[in-house]
Amino acid sequence: MFNFYAYLSDILAENHRVREERWRLTTCSGLGGLEGALQNARTHARHVCLTDTTDTEIFRRAGGWYLREVYTLFLCSQYNARSGEHTYLQALGECRALQQEIISRLLYDDDQLRRNLLFLDLDTFRSRDLGQDFLTDTAGLYFQVAIDRPQDLRFNPEAWDVQQFTRTFDGYFL
Questions:
Q1: Alpha helices per DSSP H over the chain
Q2: pTM for this structure?
């Protein structure tokens, strides 16, 4: 299993913007838990918040089965609303700049991840602004990162209480 939180923590520690602007990595349980996570971490004005819930799906591609794990990252930056609209736009710009740097690092690490049978979905990175009124004095956005890894879904007869593997399905149809 790939520890995306540890990977994200390591790449953020290597980023100049994160260090200079004092971004802090934290976790939350989806959009509903974001405000609480940020309230508990008021010592920093900027946050990268990784959800501790992951959307997953198993799918088939090119004859093989894969597990897709989708991670959601929130980038939030506090601003002084009394100073005007420009401070909101500046804070949102900080979030967008960091998002671009994270995506560029994912693209850079793609070959190494592939060697470890982890495949990033690099075709699209959608993001959504949280909106000026979502959290008081906080601008932000979120985006998702999808990572696919091969799955072995071969049938294991030892996992089942089955005497005979020749089942007729006649009794299941009405």
A1: 4-13, 16-21, 34-39, 85-115
A2: 0.85
